[in-house]
Amino acid sequence: MIELKDVRKVFPARGQAGEVVAVDGVSLAVDRGEFAGVVGPSGSGKSTLVRLVNLLERPTSGSVTVDGQLLTELPDEQVRQARRSIGMVFQHFELLDSRTAAGNVEHPLELSGVGRAERRRRAGELLDLVGLGDRAGARPAQLSGGQKQRVAIARALAVRPTVLLCDEATSALDQASTTGVLELLRRVRDELGLTVLLITHEMSVVKAVCDSAVLLDRGRVVDGGRLADVLTRPGSPLGDALLPAPVADAGAAHDGALLRVTVADRTPETLVLQTLIGELGLAVEIAGGSVETVAGGRYGRLLLRVTGGVAGLDDAVHRLRAGGILVERVAATAEVAR
């Protein structure tokens, strides 16, 4: 549905000779119906990347394909036509202050030549969908931040896109509004069968709604994949950012060894402990850990201290890994994160 191949975007440096490489050889693919995230710190190239997807910025090199169309080979007029299948939701809403909520939703339909009666019907339908059917006559100044973003989502859906791009869509919202907007985006994706690409710097947003994600840094993809996979992949930077690993104090392993174990719904921590203690007879303590919900699944990372003789430790690690459980031998560091 969305495919970028070796996309690069270079801008001239402001006020000086040279150039700035904003996106540097990025390749990614988002399947039809997928909710995908692009996450990274400020300045990593996220916002430039999303503008390359709908060709608001043309890449310096590389190709962009959306919904079967190779956009980078189309002339500007055909690109404008292709953009009608790509909805866009912005960080700061970009609503027209002079129009009501319904008027803002109608605006793209008006630009597309849709008649007044159909515009009104479609706007009412979409405002009902986003939970603002009773606020159709309100102007942006009369709406909360969360309500403004709901209107912006309705507007993005007006021309029936197949792809929805969200550029920091929750960054200007409080926590309660963020939760509501993310739930709405997930529901809209499910009900309308959209493909969603969400740009964010917040790992909590990725954990709440995304099926997959890529981690961007200095214009390059440093890690990515389905969240269920990256969370159980050894050494995954994205997995570690989504579910930070517990660490142990310098004296934690003086009389034994430390294991970091990642568990999921299908491999509960009780199974890990049963294998280590019940079947192999090892002495095990939980030195730290955390459990979170990611992409609708329960994941946890435990730091286990194995003491009292660890002759069977290698066998234990082998058996757990053979069962599909991520187990890593770790060194003690400065403190325990509980």
TrEMBL record:
It comes from the Bacteria. One of its GO terms (molecular function) is ATP binding. Keywords: Amino-acid transport, ATP-binding, Cell membrane, Membrane, Nucleotide-binding, Translocase, Transport. PROSITE patterns: ABC_TRANSPORTER_1, ABC_TRANSPORTER_2. Residues 2-243 form the ABC transporter domain. It holds the Pfam family NIL. InterPro entries: AAA+_ATPase (IPR003593), ABC_transporter-like_ATP-bd (IPR003439), ABC_transporter-like_CS (IPR017871), ACT-like_dom_sf (IPR045865), MetN_ABC_transporter-like (IPR050086), NIL_domain (IPR018449), P-loop_NTPase (IPR027417). This is Methionine ABC transporter ATP-binding protein. It comes from Blastococcus carthaginiensis.
